[in-house]
Amino acid sequence: ACFEKIEFEQTYQQQFLSAALWLEKNTEEIGKTGMLGWAIPFSIRTPKIEAPWFSALTQAQGISVLIRLYELEQRAETLDTLKLLIQPLLTDIAHGGMLYRDDQGNSFFEEAGNIHILNGCLTSLYGLQEFLSIERNDQLIKVCKDVQKTVEKWLPEFDTGYWSKYSIGLRFNLSDLHYHQLHVKQLNELGFSLQSPVFL
User: Fold this and answer.
1) What is the C-alpha radius of gyration for the chain, rounded to an integer number of angstroms?
2) How high does pLDDT run on average in the chain?
3) DSSP type of residue 165
4) Mean pLDDT per 10-residue interval, the chain, length 200 residues
5) CB burial of residue 152 (10 Å; 0-12, 13-18, 19+)
6) Nearest to 151 by CA among 50, 56, 33
7) Rounded CA separation 124/30 (Å)
8) Is residue 173 within 8 Å of residue 167, measured between CB atoms?
9) Which of 7, 80, 123, 187 could bridge 199 with an S-S bond, Cβ 3.0-4.6 Å?
């Protein structure tokens, strides 16, 4: 039984490594910026975005996978790729990135357009905290703190008093049950890791 368990675990690890290496090799340059990402190949109607486009949510999820690949393999190429993948999350939307900034000092990781989708921003924040666990980056630390402060400030706008909104860029935009429960889990998890009483 012990050998069967080891074989079972090795099979799943090999499947993970195969998928993660594919993900690493299939990044693409965003415009001519030198930054890397994974393009979404279909258009969406709300908000209206034509394909191909890039999302902070997709970016952060891919980063999380490659962090685990790096922890298993310790390949310098993976770390180099990760450094190029975090760049769009440090770069303003106007310059090809995924970071919303306004003239009031607010910052927000954008999943789609600039409608301020809560779970996409929180997922991005989580993925970048994971990156900081393997390598320090002062610019990333500052951006994450700025985004955290903005989310803390904007949380009342996502709160209807009885439920959460999916985003604050669309009218009558209540979360479904899945996303409401996800918001609660994400805010609790980040509340502890970032020591944010507001999130908790």
Assistant:
1) 18
2) 94
3) B
4) 65 94 97 94 93 96 97 96 97 96 97 96 96 96 98 97 95 93 97 96
5) middle
6) 56
7) 18
8) yes
9) 187
185 alpha carbon, distance to own chain's centre: 15
User: Both ends of the chain: CA-CA distance in Å?
Assistant: 43
Residues 6+ apart with CB under 8 A from 70: 78, 79, 82, 134
**The tokens 């709160």 sit on which residue?**
159
Q: What does the block give as tokens for 64?
A: 């999380």
Angle at 200 (CA atoms; ends 133, 196), nearest 5 degrees: 50
Residue of 169, 145, 134 lying closest to 63 (CA atoms): 134
Residue linked to tokens 């990781």: 109
| pLDDT the model gives residue 3 | 54
**Residue carrying structure tokens 């962090």:** 67
Handedness of CA 104, 97, 158, 124 (dihedral sign): negative
Triad 45, 50, 55: Cα angle to 5°: 90
